[in-house]
Amino acid sequence: MELVLLSSMESKHASTAVAALRARLHSGSSEMTAAYIASQPDPNREYYRPVKDWYASLGIEMNLYLELEQGYDAQLVDRLLACDIIHLSGGDTFRFLYWLKQRELLPRLKEFALSGGGLVGLSAGAMILAPSIASAAVCGDRNDIGLQDPAGAGLMEFNLVPHLPLDDNHGWLRQADQFRPVVLLHDQDVLALQGEEWVSFGAPVWKVNESSL
Fold this sequence. Notes:
It is a single chain. The protein has a single domain, classed as Class I glutamine amidotransferase (GATase) domain (Rossmann fold, 3-Layer(aba) Sandwich). It is an alpha/beta fold and about 210 residues long. The protein has helices at about 10-25, 50-55, 75-80, 95-100, 105-115, 125, 170-175, and strands spanning about 1-5, 30-35, 60-65, 85-90, 120, 160, 180-185, 190-195, 195-200, 205. The longest helix is centred in the first third of the chain and has 14 residues, at about 10-25. The chain has a 7-stranded mixed β-sheet, with helices on both faces. A 3-stranded mixed β-sheet has the order 6-7-10, with no helix packed on it. It is built from 7 helices and 10 strands. This is Type 1 glutamine amidotransferase-like domain-containing protein. Keywords: Hydrolase, Protease, Serine protease. It comes from Shewanella corallii.
């Protein structure tokens, strides 16, 4: 599988990791294409346009935007799944997962990844790929939408917490203990699954067993 887990897109490691994904997926015979799934409505494309431009700077064409709520267009799903990369945006993790489940897209995203497509998750979009999104509470997310089942796509064996502060983060680390195995990402950190190997960019904090930090 090819997964890229981002806490922020403002880090040089984010560009490096997605450029590496592009190189791993690109056959050299065609343009690389990416699609964007919005975590919540973005009618003015305020969040989408900068992401589109960022991908363009890496030589990846992003021309497909999928919204999950009132603006949902089921006819776009097949086109989305035909892209090389799907970008799962940041935002409200509980709301994002709720609507992915309402649209029955989680199994299709999992199948996309297992079939060799690249998934790039930003913050909430990265947590959705884990076994559970319950760890989103560590970085302040609340289940205001009433999501009944926090189970995510389960494409990795650990839970995830983005936006770990660089300093004064002991409270975050203690709270994350209840979600072991869990990885915490500072905003400059990235984790990438390249085939069967996890590659770290930066200094992610792994809390896997009782002795891990």
